[in-house]
Design goal:
Elements: E1 2-6, E2 11-16, H1 26-37, H2 40-46
Antiparallel strand pairs: 1-2
Length: 64
């Protein structure tokens, strides 16, 4: 896998995935490509998950 950075906001903007397999005929090649395109990571990147960010600290606020 290779990736390219993007800006605005900073992130990975493009991915290239190469699957190395022994020689296969066109039927197996097409099946392999369909399998890769249905994997969990591929689907997550195409349909981003909701992200909940929470910051928790043990710092006690000043009692002014």
């Amino acid at each position: 896998m290779e990736a390219e950075k993007a800006t605005g906001p900073a992130r990975l903007g493009a991915f290239r995935i190469r699957v190395d397999v022994p020689s296969v005929d066109s039927t197996h090649h097409d099946s392999l490509l369909r399998t890769v395109k249905h994997c969990l990571i591929h689907n997550t990147l195409l349909n981003p998950a909701n992200i909940d960010v929470k910051v928790e600290t043990n710092v006690i606020a000043d009692a002014a």
